[in-house]
Design a protein that fits this description.
The complex is a heterotetramer of chains A (about 300), B (about 300), C (about 450) and D (about 250).
Chain B (H helix, E strand, L loop, with lengths): L1 H19 L2 H26 L7 H18 L3 H23 L4 H21 L1 H4 L5 E2 L6 E3 L3 E3 L4 H23 L2 H11 L1 H5 L5 H21 L1 H5 L1 E2 L6 H14 L6 H19 L3 H14 L4 H7 L6
Chain C lengths: L1 H19 L7 H13 L12 E8 L6 H20 L7 E8 L4 H15 L3 E4 L3 H7 L3 H4 L2 E4 L5 H10 L5 E3 L5 H11 L7 E7 L2 H17 L4 E8 L7 H8 L5 E4 L3 H13 L2 H4 L2 E4 L5 H6 L1 H5 L7 E3 L11 H14 L5 H20 L4 H8 L3 E4 L2 E5 L6 E2 L4 E5 L8 E6 L3 H4 L13
Parallel strand pairs in C: 1-2, 1-3, 3-4, 4-5, 6-7, 6-8, 8-9, 9-10
Antiparallel strand pairs in C: 10-14, 11-12, 12-13, 14-15
Helix pairs in contact in C: 3-16, 4-5, 8-9, 16-17
Chain D lengths: L2 E12 L2 E12 L4 E4 L6 H9 L6 E6 L2 E2 L5 H6 L2 E3 L12 H12 L14 H13 L15 H14 L4 E5 L7 H18 L2 E5 L3 H7 L2 E6 L2 E6 L1 H6 L1 H6 L6
Parallel strand pairs in D: 3-8, 3-9, 6-7, 7-8
Antiparallel strand pairs in D: 1-2, 1-4, 4-5, 9-10
Helix pairs in contact in D: 3-4, 3-5, 4-5, 5-6
The chains are: A mainly alpha (about 300), B mainly alpha (about 300), C alpha/beta (about 450), D alpha/beta (about 250).
């Protein structure tokens, strides 16, 4: 092993830990955006969408195409990519998932796993196998000083975006009529349809929302991250971990889970450079063993 | 009777293969046999017990690394393979105790998680596993029982027969198991856990049994790998590798005995042939999976046998 | 121009991977022509080797974040094959290429090798990007009875352990191994007295481990005063390096040595820019930063001078060195053919084909045992300069400089300038090899 | 006449709601007993508790003087307690024959043999055949159970319940979803099995006519508590019972 697992890097004062935590938080926000959609879809539709990461990837590719290739304004590019992925999501739900809600979860996992394979190769066909890295919009360059160290404006923006989304989604589900309908049908489909809620359309909407959240995560990454086939599959496992830790179908749980995983791996990299990966899975396992419904699950 | 004859013919063909087929065909056949064993074990868990594991590659890897380690230290094929299987069985028994407490996606997530922990151990515990370079230069040791016989394994043909023998044995035993009272018991658990419990069947005990047997089969498949490739690397423990028996089984059909075997053949050939003409073989596989899940949950076999799947 | 490059590249990929690597796009004319001709009027005289075509089985990674490397290998090999076939092939036998995706997965690489050697009937194997894949293929070469020329995989273990240690003679390596990014870096920076605190951001796999270990060993020898203050390990598929960067920056290093390559390398240094790293440190050494895909990826930033002349790099060949007619000609032809500059895996693959040619012509045989004889001790002039295949470990010895990343009006993308050249004796490890300890 | 199962102040609570509360009850061997009561009276919960399907929050359960309060369902089957379910609960993907064979094997403790063939289990096979006959399902023997008609599935469920050869067997609405004629047939069958197999049946049933004509003993539950118990005649006269069944003609 390259150095003992407990090899400590130098200089672990409070400032360092704070800074690393903040960095971890910015990374956590991408995870949150990904996990939010996953957990919403599971909570309402009861489907664990293996292909959710692929929607994240599609979001990144669309954003890259609009913004990186066609030079569309950054913000517009993001909106466009969200809409495009939402369309893909509706298609998935309407023509495939809808027909397997009643089925064993195993088939849902398998179906959506099939979609991972399809999406990965599809983007390869359209955009080629080589990784894409567009330039960053100039207004995001530069840094602000945090505990005396330069902190990227972009990461700050990501943190902000993540929090805003968290609030918006919360309001959406807690305060709006639509949210109430969704929660009603999540808890009791028969009852919901009995009181005249159009369940199929509602579910399509929910799935589209989940897809858009994933896409947002992907799209916001494009200026600073790499866009390549397979990033979705690489991300989905982390998303699973997060939603499991927070409790499948639990939004607050997903947020906390994402923050835990994001900051923890940041600290893992700082403190035990060797054991990060193992650490994350260990946590997931322990949660599953001790409290399978997750930290926030009822 | 008809099937008996068909099986006999098939076995004879397989036995004659080295005479008629080239080196590469032999190599591919060995891989198909490994995948068949792997998938059979997986399907005992999925098709027969109703538990979808995404961590089987973990046990496959334990078998592979175990056998590899043994062969590097003590070059005797039998010792290596048996050793690998035993270790894999032990690990799956232990992890089984932890996993079978859950069902549905909690079980799937838990197995996924354990599999990936094994993966990261294989990747990180470099002193033992050789990191991502893996165990290198594992000998295809002679098949030997001191005092009785010693067969050189260097020629691929010889090793092919060893694998074939193990595969036939594994398949035969599997047939016995699923058609035994125990086999019926686990199917009962699959069909209705509560009902099974209320006729006096200890659900956990039989889940654990099935989990362990599945682990043993994964371990056997894994143990047969290092002598063939002379290398073992972490990817064999990765969750994406766990997906292979899943896909193969789904392809062949989860509710038929031969499903996983047929599926393994199709899956491997699909992968091996399509990949030569296009780099986009995964999309074909993906479409097939979607179609199977949407339409023919009994897999290819159900289409032949007009049975299975649709429920 | 990058756009055009891309398109041709994608088109190329499709057909090449479709299994007709040799007979692609622009090549069709020659390739196909060749195939019709040979059966049409066979000339016994031209069958010195008893075969119409010599089959070359190559592989590399052509998908994912590292895909450009596989592409460059194909492009280089294809160029060489076109040139040779145009001149009538080797002793009258044309060359044919089949190229497969290694996916950076050892199991896949082994399967490819077996398929190419035992089914497709390749006479030579070459390519391979990942060290893991190389270490997996090496041991089965005797069974396959084929030579494999490794064009990129750079772990020292391949030649030191498998060839020198285990005596697997079918392994050859034309590319400079980890000695390059580890020892050249050490030799450059021993001359910087005020760089005392080093940090590392390394690949979380054997490649990163060995480079970091070797770099530290060598630098310590010359500069007992330096310390290695922090390290971060990045696995494949790292999407975001900011945690790694801020982790190592916490120790306030004077300089950073990094190994993540291709797309990941680009991401790494760009995210380092975002974190204002280049205001804090004196130097950043990007191991394979001399590779074309990397330089293309950071053109804008370099042009804007964002790296403040602190970004250093090397490669296993750079197109602007050496200043020889061979190299000029190669770069010129490559740009004409592919509308891009060649990176090192392109040159390595290109030269590989010519090494095979030399060996066959020297031995007038396709028997592996003869060819091994033919290549051992071979001295051959290549674009990268003269290469010498050391008999003990089958490692090709040639010198590649390190330098600073900067713009050069002569080229559309940044290049390495202010080059530091070292004699090979100074930075290649020499037999007898004692195993490299990878402790911290 | 001797007791077979006794409960002491048994209680099961879901949050505020008391599904079963302070139930102290003695069931006599050989008495064909019906548990009746309005929906949500706790009948099914009581059966779930007695069969070990769920564990009580308070109180004790005794089977032939032996305490079994915390015994799991599979263990209880082994000592002679069996049940059927209100919601159809069979093994849909297995054949009708296998549905019966499995519980028989389980009773003979043969299920753990992993390599012997099923046909080899002569004793079990014979017995399963016999039970199939008793529940009128020979013809359907090799059907997948899931493809049986609703009525036949009910019969199969009954068959499964008796296949473990229980001393006491709880049937949760064995005739639900059947037409009146079928109902009578099924309950006649139950009665027949009771006498032939010396099994004590405790049934939950809605059809009052059937209940009052067939039962030797009736337990009336309301709001999780035992309201009354006694011979059909007594229950008919019971004022409280009349009140809760207000409107319905008993």
């Amino acid at each position: 092993m390259p150095g003992s697992p407990f090899l400590m890097n130098e200089g672990k004062d409070m400032e360092t830990l704070a800074f690393q935590g903040l960095i971890g938080l910015s990374v956590a926000m991408y995870l949150w955006l990904l996990a939010a959609g996953l957990t919403i879809v599971f909570g309402v539709l009861g489907v664990l969408n293996f292909a959710h990461g692929s929607l994240f990837m599609l979001g990144a590719y669309f954003a890259f195409t609009f913004y990186g290739l066609w030079g569309v304004n950054f913000w517009l590019a993001i909106v466009l990519s969200l809409l495009s992925v939402a369309v893909v999501g509706c298609f998935m739900e309407r023509f495939f998932l809808r027909h397997i809600y009643h089925m064993d979860h195993a088939y849902q996992l398998l179906l959506t796993f099939g979609f991972i394979l399809i999406f990965d190769d599809a983007v390869k066909m359209v955009w080629g196998g080589v990784a894409k890295i567009p330039a960053m919009p100039s207004f995001f360059e530069g840094t602000v000083s945090v505990v005396g160290r330069p902190f990227p404006v972009y990461n700050l923006f990501i943190i902000g975006a993540g929090l805003v989304v968290a609030i918006v989604v919360w309001l959406l589900f807690e305060k709006t009529w639509w949210g109430k309908m969704v929660r009603a049908s999540a808890s009791d489909r028969e009852m919901a349809s009995a009181i005249g809620i159009n369940i199929p359309r509602l579910f399509t909407g929910v799935f589209a929302l989940g897809a858009m959240l994933a896409a947002l995560g992907g799209a916001l990454g494009t200026p600073v991250r790499v866009v390549a086939p397979g990033i979705g599959a690489a991300m989905i496992i982390q998303a699973f971990i997060i939603t499991v830790i927070g409790g499948l179908g639990n939004l607050k749980g997903a947020f906390v889970g994402a923050v835990i995983v994001g900051t923890l791996s940041a600290y893992g990299i700082l403190l035990f450079p060797v054991f990060e990966l193992f650490l994350i899975f260990l946590i997931m396992t322990v949660v599953l063993m001790v409290k399978p419904q997750g930290l926030f699950g009822g | 009777m008809k099937t008996r004859v068909a099986i006999l013919v098939l076995v004879i063909l397989l036995a004659l293969l080295p005479a008629i087929a080239g080196k590469y065909a032999l190599y591919v056949t060995i891989h198909i046999l490994l995948l068949s064993i792997f998938s059979l074990g997986f399907n005992l868990l999925f098709g027969y017990t109703g538990l979808l594991s995404f961590g089987q590659a973990g046990f496959y890897a334990v078998g592979a690394y175990g056998c590899g380690k043994i062969l590097l230290a003590y070059p005797s094929l039998l010792v290596g393979i048996v050793g690998g299987v035993v270790i894999a069985g032990a690990v799956s028994l232990f992890l089984g105790i932890l996993c079978i407490r859950h069902t549905r996606m909690y079980f799937s997530m838990l197995t996924l998680s354990f599999g990936m922990m094994i993966f990261s151990v294989a990747w990180k515990w470099r002193d033992v596993t050789g990191g991502d370079d893996g165990l290198v230069g594992i000998p295809r040791a002679p098949l030997e029982i001191p005092g009785f016989f010693k067969i050189n394994m260097t020629p691929m043909e010889n090793y092919y027969y060893v694998v074939l023998a193990f595969a036939i044995l594994a398949i035969y035993l599997f047939h016995r198991i699923v058609h035994s009272p125990m086999g019926l018991a686990i199917q009962g658990i699959r069909d209705s856990e509560t009902r099974a419990a209320c006729i006096g069947i200890s659900v956990r005990k039989y889940r654990l049994l099935s989990f362990t047997i599945a682990g043993l089969y994964a371990g056997l498949a894994g143990s047969l790998l290092p002598p063939l490739e002379s290398t073992v690397t972490p990817p064999v423990a990765h969750w994406s590798y766990s997906a292979e028996p899943v896909l193969a089984t789904l392809l062949g059909g989860i509710y038929t005995f031969s499903g996983p075997i047929v599926g393994s053949v199709l899956f491997y050939l699909l992968k091996d042939i399509i990949v030569r003409f296009t780099e986009y073989w995964l999309i074909c596989l993906g479409i097939i999976v979607v179609v199977l899940v949407m339409g023919f949950r009994g897999g290819v076999m159900s289409i032949f046998l007009k049975e299975g799947g649709r429920r | 121009m990058r756009e055009k490059g891309k398109i041709s590249r994608r088109a190329f990929l499709k057909t090449a991977v479709a299994g007709f690597g040799g007979v692609t796009l622009g090549l069709k004319g020659i390739g196909a022509g060749a195939q019709e001709k040979t059966p049409a009027k066979p000339k016994p005289a031209r069958k010195a080797l008893g075969v119409d075509v010599i089959k070359l089985g190559g592989q590399g990674v052509i998908s994912g974040a590292h895909a450009d490397y596989g592409w460059q290998i194909q492009a280089g090999a294809t160029l060489a094959i076109e040139e040779i076939n145009a001149k009538g092939g080797i002793l009258g036998s044309k060359l044919e290429l089949k190229f497969m995706d290694e996916e950076l997965k050892p199991a896949v690489a082994v399967k490819n090798a077996r398929y190419l050697a035992t089914d497709w009937g390749a006479h030579f194997l070459f390519g391979v990007d990942s060290s893991g894949s190389a270490m997996a293929i090496g041991p089965i070469l005797p069974e396959l009875d084929r030579i494999c020329m490794f064009d990129h995989a750079s772990t020292h273990r391949l030649t030191e352990e498998l060839v020198y240690g285990k005596g697997i003679k079918q392994i050859f390596r034309i590319a400079a191994p980890v000695y390059q990014e580890a020892n050249v870096a050490a030799l450059i920076f021993k001359e910087f007295p005020n760089i005392k605190r080093w940090a590392g951001i390394q690949c979380d796999y054997e490649y990163g481990y060995s480079v970091w270990a070797l770099f530290k060993d060598t630098l310590k020898k010359y500069r007992p005063d330096v310390e290695f203050v922090s390290i971060a390990w990045a696995p494949f598929w790292t999407m975001d390096f900011s945690s790694h960067i801020s982790a190592v920056m916490a120790a306030k290093p004077d300089a950073i040595h990094a190994t993540p390559w291709a797309g990941e390398g680009v991401m790494l240094v760009r995210q380092a820019l975002m974190l204002g790293v280049f205001d804090k440190i004196q130097a950043w050494f990007q191991s394979m930063g001399g590779s074309v895909d990397f330089l293309e990826g950071i053109s804008n930033e370099v042009a804007a001078g964002k790296f403040k002349d602190k970004l250093w790099a090397t490669a296993r060949y750079i197109h602007n060195y050496p200043d020889t007619p061979e190299n000029k000609k190669f770069v010129e032809n490559f740009r004409k053919r592919w509308n891009r500059l060649p990176n090192y895996s392109a040159e390595n693959a290109y030269s590989t084909i010519y090494v095979f040619k030399a060996a066959v012509e020297k031995t007038r045989s396709l028997k592996t045992s003869d060819l091994i004889q033919g290549i051992e001790g071979l001295k051959i002039m290549t674009p990268a300069g003269e290469r010498y295949f050391r008999p003990e470990d089958h490692q090709a010895i040639y010198s590649v400089p390190g330098g600073k990343v900067m713009m050069d009006p002569k080229y559309p993308i940044p290049v390495l300038g202010d080059l530091k050249v070292f004699p090979t004796q100074a930075y290649y490890r020499n037999p007898p090899f004692e195993p490299l300890k990878m402790g911290k | 006449m001797k007791e077979i199962i006794r409960t002491e102040s048994l209680g099961k609570y879901f949050g505020e709601m008391a599904a079963v509360h302070e139930v102290t009850l003695t069931l006599q061997e050989g008495l064909f007993t019906s548990v009746i009561g309005p929906n949500g009276a706790g009948k099914t919960t009581l059966i779930n508790l007695l069969s070990g399907y769920i564990l009580p929050d308070r109180g004790r359960i005794y089977f032939r003087e032996k305490e079994i309060t915390r015994l799991g369902p599979d263990k209880r089957v082994k000592i002679g307690i069996s049940r059927s379910f209100q919601v159809m609960n069979i093994f849909p993907r297995m054949t009708v024959f296998q549905n019966i064979l499995l519980p028989v094997l389980s009773r003979l403790n043969k299920t753990s043999s992993a390599f012997s063939s099923l046909k080899g289990q002569k004793e079990a096979v014979g017995e399963a055949e016999k039970i199939l006959g008793e529940v009128w399902l020979q013809e359907e023997k090799d059907f997948p159970a899931g493809e049986l008609s609703h009525g036949d599935q009910r019969l199969l469920e009954l068959g499964i319940a008796v296949a473990t050869n229980p001393q006491i067997c709880f049937l949760d609405e064995p005739s639900s979803g059947m037409n009146p004629i079928e109902r009578i047939k099924v309950l006649e069958l139950v009665k027949k099995l009771a006498s032939e197999r010396k099994t004590t049946f405790i049934i939950v049933e809605h059809d009052m006519d059937i209940v009052f004509s067939l039962s030797d003993w009736i337990v009336v539950m309301n709001r999780g508590e035992v309201l009354a118990e006694g011979k059909p005649a007594e229950i008919r006269e019971n004022q409280e019972v009349r009140d809760i069944y207000l409107g319905e003609e008993i």
